[in-house]
Write a structure and sequence with these properties.
Blueprint: E1 7-12, E2 15-20, H1 31-46, E3 52-57, E4 62-64, H2 69-75, E5 98-102, E6 105-107, H3 109-115, E7 119-123, E8 127-129, H4 143-151, H5 153-160, E9 166-167, H6 168-174, E10 179-181, H7 185-197, H8 201-214, H9 219-225, H10 230-236, H11 240-249
Parallel strand pairs: 2-3, 3-5, 4-6, 5-7, 6-8, 7-10
Antiparallel strand pairs: 1-2, 8-9
Helix pairs in contact: 4-5, 8-10
Length: 259
């Protein structure tokens, strides 16, 4: 495992857990932290043994407070790597699922990092906002595009144009949070990861690829083009496509190999 200064990366079987490690700054990301996250997600994408990732923040107060504005005030640069904020928000070719375990405030880029994940699990103390307009900026890491797709135009504008803070329970009601937990948010996130890991990894990747590809095209086109997707073809031609029905017929749990 690579040594990092601003994040921690651990493998738990097929699961990669990435933890932001700047609690003194509410896990706000400076450029070095962005670069470390870029490398961590590069490694996760390449590693055939890693099937699901969880990203969370250290401490009890913050998931991620966004960009390190003190650094930006000094050098005037947003400083994000090719993968976008946190190495993830512009990474559109990652077909492995990523879960955000939001343990506290998710502000600005921190909220955008969570929105770039496939599932958001939040503690009841979590809060979300895109307050960029309040500091002379805009949500340029996907917030202005992803949030309307998730919760609709008017409700998104209500957040984007005011920078207002939304609680975890309201996020669940609006539809961008999957689960709010009163207990340990990482325990809840690991439960979601376990449920995903019980499925064929190739089926999961094919599903994510087809869903994301079909979001912005007409339904007939999406249905037609899914057959050409490399992830779908990999699933159909895999050993797992044989193992799944065989395990069902034999009334046992499948033994996925990922190819």
């Amino acid at each position: 495992m690579m040594n990092y200064q601003y994040i921690d990366v651990r493998h738990e079987g097929r699961l990669t857990v990435i933890t932001l490690q700047r609690p003194e700054a509410h896990n706000a990301l400076n450029y070095a932290a962005h670069e470390e996250l870029q490398r961590a997600f590069d490694d996760f994408a390449r590693d055939a043994e890693q099937w699901v990732a969880i990203v969370t923040g250290s401490g009890s107060k913050a998931f991620c407070a966004g960009h390190d504005l003190k650094q930006q005030a000094d050098n005037g640069s947003l400083g994000t790597p090719p993968g976008g904020f946190g190495g993830l928000t512009s990474r559109f070719d990652l077909n492995k699922p990523v879960i955000a375990a939001v343990n506290g405030v998710a502000m600005g880029g921190g909220f955008e990092l969570a929105l770039a994940c496939d599932i958001i699990v939040a503690s009841e103390a979590a809060a979300f906002a895109l307050p960029e307009a309040r500091v002379g900026l805009a949500a340029l890491a996907g917030g202005m595009q992803r949030l309307p797709r998730l919760i609709g135009l008017k409700r998104s504008m209500g957040m984007l144009l005011t920078g207002r803070r939304v609680s975890a329970s309201e996020g669940l009601q609006l539809g961008f949070v999957n689960e709010v937990t009163q207990g340990d948010v990482m325990q809840a996130a690991r439960r979601w990861a376990d449920d995903i890991l019980a499925c064929s990894p190739l089926s999961v990747r094919a599903t994510k690829a087809a869903v994301m590809r079909g979001l912005d095209v007409p339904l007939p086109q999406a249905l037609h083009e899914q057959w050409d997707d490399p992830q779908v073809q990999a699933m159909l031609n895999s050993q797992d496509a044989i193992e799944g029905p065989k395990a069902f017929a034999q009334k046992r749990s499948p033994r996925w190999v990922g190819y």
